[in-house]
Amino acid sequence: MDNLEKNTIGILRHPGALRKDKQALEKIKLRYIRNRRLVHHYLDFEKLITGLSTKFINLPADKIDQGINQALKAIAEFSGVDRSYIFMLQDGRAKVSNIYEWCAEGTEPQIHKLQDLSVEDFPWIKSKIMGLESVYVPRVSDMPQEAAAEKEICLAGSVLSLVCVPMVYQGAVVGFMGFDAVKAEKSWTQESIDLLKIVSEILVNVIESKKSAEELQKYRSCLEELVQERTAALEREIAERKRIEEELRKYHDHLEELAKERTLELELENEDRVKAEEALRVSEARYRAIIEDQVHFVCRWLPDGTLTFINEAYCRYFGKKRDELINTSFMPMIPEEDRQIVKDSIAALNRDNPAGTCEHRVILPAGQVRWQQWTNRAIFDEQGKVVEFQSVGDDITERRFTRQALEDSERFLSNIFSSIQDGISILDTDLNIIRVNSVVEKWQAHAMPLVGKKCHKAYHSSDLPCAGCPSRQTLQTGNSAYAVIPKSGPGGKTVGWLELYTFPLMDADTGKLKGIIEYTHDITGRKKSEEEKAALDKELMKSNKRLKQLTLMDPHTGLYNHRYLQEIIEAEFDRSRRYAQPLSVMMLDIDYFRSINDVYGHKFGDLVLKQFAKILKRMVRRYDTVIRYGGEEFVILCSGTDRANALSLAKRILDAINLFDFGNKKHSVKLKLSIAVVSYNEDRALKGINLVELADQILSRVKESGGNRVYSSLDIKKAGPHYKINKNGNIKFLNEKIEKLSRRANQSLMEAIFAFAKTIEVKDHYTGEHVERTVKYATGIARAMNLPERDIELIRQAAMLHDLGKIGISEKILLKKGKLTKQEFAEIRKHPQIGVDIIRPIHFLHPIIPILLYHHERWDGKGYPNSLKGTDIPVGARIVAIADVYQALISDRCYRKAYPQEKAIEIIREESGKLFDPEIVDAFLRIVHTVD
């Protein structure tokens, strides 16, 4: 009986099985339809976001607000919510305001109620948004107790559901974007929330660009005012030049009229030719006399710069004869860097604007550099073409230097006057204030403005001059004077004491007294020194207390140190026990930190520790205590926090640290963390230090399990705290102590090996990035095959060190872009044996030697180094082989671009039974998308 007949008989015998299959198919069909709808929904959402992003690319600044409001409306209508809005942080992140809002028809706007709100009034939302988390509340009535403030506001606004995503600009949170469901509850998928984060990035960049545009407009307005002032000054300076130019033009026009008249008379009356020529010579002589008598430089020149006429002043200035200058260009006398200024000034002249002024430098024959100012006028023919230029100029070198010197002097004296920390007042002979410095303005802010008032009225609220006034003495005697006077506040009330020195202000030209200089020094502190002695002693005690606090701080990271932990842990423990409140202790250790120091140096490692400490302080609550326990170990004390909340915080910290890039522009690294969490009274403890000891024991178990995870006492099998020792347990205690020390020694040695392996990254950047991904795929495959934890740990270590032998391979071969030669490929094939030779002296790493040595063997026996086949290859080596090849396929190499993921998976599938073990390929296909 064939299989078809057997199956048919089986179906006839079991009709219930057929019904179950049909029901299963219906469920699959419904799930397919639902998933298809979700995919179309996400595609439509992505198209909407792409359209909004494109719209904002060339949107002018005055339409950005309108564009943002339209974007909020489009996203809200697409998502089916009733209100969308944007809040931005203000006043140094202390306040927040609703700056954009869209509401559906029938939904009451809230923007006018949500202005200048303190961020401290929303602690729950603040902690999440500042921690770069999204806030998703499917049902407002179910919000947690710690969100009571936010819940009250939502209920007042009839909000049923909401979602908020942080708005981040240049790495800092500047606000958040939110969506409210008012008419009916609304649920969001994580994918939709991720798309909203993309929208928030688009909108925050648009908002910041608008701010930049507004700031730029302010600078432009200021520049326009300066240009207007400079233009007015130039017009005044040009006025005189225009008068001379007008006079020259009149003489020139007159001369041309005479020439025309004489020419016509010569043509009509030949007998008057001699008289006409004589009149023309006289007229020309008059014109030349006027020009030659000018103290200004006068010249005429062709468009190419060739001089056709110069006056005597021009010749004297350049120290050359007229014949030496005529028919030569003046351009070589102008420094090369100033020639474009002259060319631009000339190019700007036209029939509507025939004249212009230009300042530039000139090099005299002796090599001296001088400044000149020229008024240039273009001369046009009947067709409007420029045929010649006429210029009038002056030497303005001394004027420029004098003006610059005056400006520098005034600026220097003003800076000195403003920088003096004592009070300075300038008075005229009638005791009127004519100038004061900023210190006096600060003292007498209640009497501002001071300039123009009598000194006794402004400084002492008195209508009469002060008795014994040293300024009046100086006016009478012409000598300096001194007195101690009261320092007056509003209403003439004495608020302190001043030393007043007065000096005569003499006129430099006449030598006569023209005013008084008052120099005042505040001696209020000296007068009250005895009264303040007790206060100083008290302050000294405070200083001693602060110094004591400094001894409890880690100077490198700014966190509390180990000594502070010893002082505070018992007090926190007693407080928790007295008030029956939970207390959690979190111990964190940076995995393989030694590798960072060994590869990049201790200075770079110190920078990473500072950045890590800063992130920790930002992620915990204000009243949590962050302590640098030692080296790369940290402790966080969380008062009033139970184990569940402490574990939640630890996982958020782990996720955030895994995503963050540490370092500088030159080097960037990612950190892995091992975190242990213990909590009183869920974990038994007799005193505070027991919690720290238990956390240390749990941290060791985390490190043994591979690190980069969070453990509590629930994750370890051992019952009871490690610190309890009975009288008969000394041998057991010693064994546990020796085992713990051995584990730590092995861990330190493992970190040293990993640091050695990380040096490959310096030689081959691809290998450095490749290792961590290979470890993830290898451990994922091992878990999918349900291998024992001990075997999974060995595979993790082997995957971490599988390319260790490349240290012995030439960089020239590792980085070669072309195809390797036979000799070069033979060198590459040596790296498994080199890696094994390196770790062979380390006894506890012996179990991973077969994996390292055979991870390039093939299932069909065509691999290296020993051509092993099938199950003769250790299972760990077969797993690492697939992880290694897949990660290589999806990565950019020096000789090719990365394959798309689906193409790489197809290659792995095709090599099943040839290069790879088919069973391991099946396990890989089950986990590949979850790892990515």
Question: In words, what does this structure look like?
Answer:
By secondary structure, this protein is an alpha+beta fold. It has a six-stranded antiparallel β-sheet, sandwiched between helices. Strand 7 and strand 8 (307-310) form a beta hairpin. Helix 2 packs antiparallel against helix 3 (64-79) and helix 23 runs antiparallel to helix 24 (789-801). The two termini are 48 Å apart. Mean pLDDT is 81; it is low at 1-13, 718-731 and 761-768.
The rounded distance between the terminal residues' Cα atoms is 48 Å
Note the quaternary state here.
single chain
* Model regions low in confidence, pLDDT < 50 over at least 5 residues: 1-13, 718-731, 761-768
Using only CA atoms, what is the Rg? 44 Å
Query: What percent strand?
Result: 15-25%
Mean pLDDT: 81
Provide a count of the helices: 31
Per the principal axes of the C-alpha atoms, what is the gross shape? extended
Give a concise summary.
The chain has 932 residues and is an alpha+beta fold.
Keywords, please?
single chain; alpha+beta; six-stranded antiparallel sheet; five-stranded antiparallel sheet
Summarize the topology.
Blueprint: H1 3-13, H2 15-57, H3 64-79, E1 83-90, E2 95-103, E3 117-118, H4 123-130, E4 135-137, H5 148-156, E5 161-169, E6 172-181, H6 190-268, H7 273-292, E7 297-301, E8 307-310, H8 312-318, H9 322-325, H10 336-347, E9 355-363, E10 369-380, E11 386-395, H11 397-419, E12 423-427, E13 433-436, H12 438-443, H13 455-460, H14 470-477, E14 481-488, E15 494-506, E16 513-522, H15 524-527, H16 529-550, H17 562-578, E17 583-590, H18 593-600, H19 602-619, E18 625-630, E19 633-639, H20 643-659, E20 662-663, E21 668-669, E22 673-680, H21 688-704, E23 709-712, H22 730-763, H23 765-784, H24 789-801, H25 811-814, H26 822-828, H27 831-839, H28 849-854, H29 875-889, H30 901-910, H31 918-931
Parallel strand pairs: 22-23
Antiparallel strand pairs: 1-2, 1-6, 2-3, 4-5, 5-6, 7-8, 7-11, 9-10, 10-11, 12-13, 12-16, 14-15, 15-16, 17-19, 17-22, 18-19, 20-21
